[in-house]
Automatic annotation (TrEMBL):
Any one Gene Ontology BP term: stabilization of membrane potential
Location within or outside the cell: Membrane
GO cellular component, one term: plasma membrane
Organism: Burhinus bistriatus
The protein's name in its UniProt record: KCNKH protein
Database matches in Pfam families: Ion_trans_2 (PF07885)
Keywords annotated in UniProt: Ion channel, Ion transport, Membrane, Potassium, Transmembrane, Transmembrane helix, Transport
Transmembrane segments: 26-45, 51-71, 101-123, 135-155, 167-190
Domain called Potassium channel: residue spans: 20-78, 114-190
Superkingdom per UniProt: Eukaryota
Molecular-function GO term, any one: potassium ion leak channel activity
Topology within the bilayer: Multi-pass membrane protein
Record family assignment: Belongs to the two pore domain potassium channel (TC 1.A.1.8) family.
Claim: Ion transport is one of the keywords in the record: yes
Length: 191
């Protein structure tokens, strides 16, 4: 069994020696990079050589802080957009607190749709997961828990489009920024 697991990790399946899972092509490498610097770490893919491990350590040492800066900037831009919309509504309709509450609610609903409610439909189509499994994957990924029980693009029986992992990588970055804002609002509310 250990031999089969090791062979699978190396890209060998029962159907033959294949790299069709896209583990180390550009999109697979990009996805690995995103999962490393976001600290998701699904556990299904890792460097197997000493040089690869050393590179991964150095990459993470610089990549994680840079990613945190990037996520903070994306989150600030999202927040700025929400604040500008609220300000325009206040000016147009002379609403005070109502505009802010309305825009924050719209931003929350839009984020819920883009990052948690609609992606499971894509995962159902591309991965064959149920909607609940896709929703679970969405939250576990964006919250950086990353158990590794569900990982996109790993089913050897499915054909994945070239854009799939790249789009999911961008979804992870923007979704993490959005979820960080939601968590920040929850913290402020609880405090």
């Amino acid at each position: 069994l250990q031999g089969i697991v090791q062979a699978y990790k190396s890209g060998i399946t029962l159907q033959g020696n294949t790299t069709s899972l896209g583990r180390w092509d550009f999109t697979g490498s990009f996805f690995f990079s995103i999962s490393a610097i976001t600290t998701i770490g699904y556990g299904n893919l890792s460097p197997s050589t000493v040089a690869g491990r050393i590179f991964c350590i150095l990459f993470a040492l610089f990549g994680i802080p840079l990613n945190l800066v990037l996520l903070n900037e994306i989150g600030q831009l999202m927040l700025l957009g929400v604040q500008r919309c609220a300000h325009r509504l206040e000016e147009a309709f002379h609403w005070q607190k109502k505009a802010s509450l309305l825009i924050k609610t719209c931003a929350l609903v839009t984020g819920l749709l883009l990052f948690l409610l609609l992606p499971p439909l894509l995962f159902s189509d591309k991965e064959g997961w149920s909607y609940e499994e896709g929703f679970y994957y969405s939250f576990i990924t964006l919250s950086t828990i990353g158990f590794g029980d569900y990982v996109i693009g790993m089913n050897p029986d499915r054909n994945y489009p070239g854009w799939y992992k790249n789009v999911i990588s961008l979804w992870i970055l923007f979704g993490m920024a959005w979820l960080a804002l939601v968590i920040k609002f929850c913290i402020n509310f609880l405090e």
